[in-house]
Amino acid sequence: MSYKTKVQERSITYSVKLSEDSIVFTYHSKPFYSFFKRVFDLSVSLICLILLLLPFMIIALIILIDDGSASLIFVQKRVGKNGKNFKMYKFRTMCANAEDKLVELQQLNESDGPVFKIKDDPRITKIGRLLRASNVDELPQLFNIFLGQMSFVGPRPALPREVDEYRESDKLRLLVKPGLTCYWQATKNRNAVPFDEWMALDRKYIMERSVWVDIKLIFKTFLFLFKKSGY
User: What is the pTM (predicted TM-score) of this model?
Assistant: First the structure.
């Protein structure tokens, strides 16, 4: 039974046992928490967008000087809550034809799941490496948070091609809005985390999510913000 059908049947609480991984998963809709989380996301994202307007312009100018052959903002289709697609925004960190080069680089994939990750991706520009190391490239997703497509805290949004390869247990991460940060995002050397462990961390967040958990994850993420975490 798909996650969509389950949510429609019991919107408050349900448990599902997945034989493929011997996983027992319990979901609570938490309407009051969801309401306050949306108020927080809306107000804080608006404040951040106003305060970061000048830094955004400076970063865009640096990207333009480094490589003016492509757009300053990278727009990509991602999968959100309940499998709904949306356009996610990032500062461009790769060369103009990065998506075209993906096919020839696929054989170098170092991930053990449906995601694509390699340590020294040749598509990343010099400025792009600095932006990724500090996670600054993710800041345009404040627009996605303001629009209600994402939240500050939640599983990282996946690509449609990745979701197409998800097992039933992996699809459980689509029960909530994707986020700017999560347990996986706030983990040191996160790209070395096995795919199954990453999915387990997302399920853990969905079951445990609360105001206090979100605050802790946001605080922990700030500790990594200007440090190189992952590759």
Answer: 0.84
